[in-house]
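hey so u asked for the seq, here:
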Amino acid sequence: MPKYSGGQVIKIIKSISGKRVFEDAPEVKEELWGGEFWTDGYYMATISGKGNKQVIEKYIKSQGREKDLEQLRLFDL
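ran it, structure tokens below
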């Protein structure tokens, strides 16, 4: 059973990355409306136990997002 829910993972990623951006480039915060780096929303989908790299690639291509295929390397698929 997973230790964190998908929403918790997103919250952690947004928190850490937002803090890092503000540490590395504090001037960014002044340019943002409300001083927030991320919006409250996010989208997450699963591929189920039957999913694999080919299924994900096919989905990405069907969305017209071939340029995003490079991001799959981040997940060692």
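The chain has a mean pLDDT of 85. Helices lie at 6-24, 27-31, 53-62.
lmk if thats what u needed
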